[in-house]
Amino acid sequence: QVYLVESGGGLVQTGGSLRLSCAVSGSIASINAMGWYRQAPGKQRELVASITSVGSMTNYADSVKGRFTISRDNARKMVYLEMNSLKPEDTAVYYCNAKRPIVYSPYNYWGQGTQVTVSS
Known about the structure:
Blueprint: E1 2-7, E2 10-13, E3 18-26, E4 33-39, E5 46-52, E6 58-60, E7 68-73, E8 78-83, E9 92-99, E10 108-110, E11 114-119
Parallel strand pairs: 2-11
Antiparallel strand pairs: 1-3, 3-8, 4-5, 4-9, 5-6, 7-8, 9-10, 9-11
């Protein structure tokens, strides 16, 4: 099992910054990728950014490239999402995600989510 707890959401003005944190515990060695997703009201959950366990390769949604940065601190068992130049369209509930190889059951884990609201 993998357990994820997000923190760091809140209300910020357009152009502001926030840093989301995700504390990871459980079967950490089995995780092969971590990510941040978001879901706005009435919309599907979408990938924001991801980072692999091997090589720390990152991937970003086009809408956040150049503004958001995903990182990990293995010693502290944390994953972060640094968000800069925030826009009202970034408003959503942000979820931390952990993926294990598909042979595991379950192989996909989610945190409880943290609300990010960007005011115009």
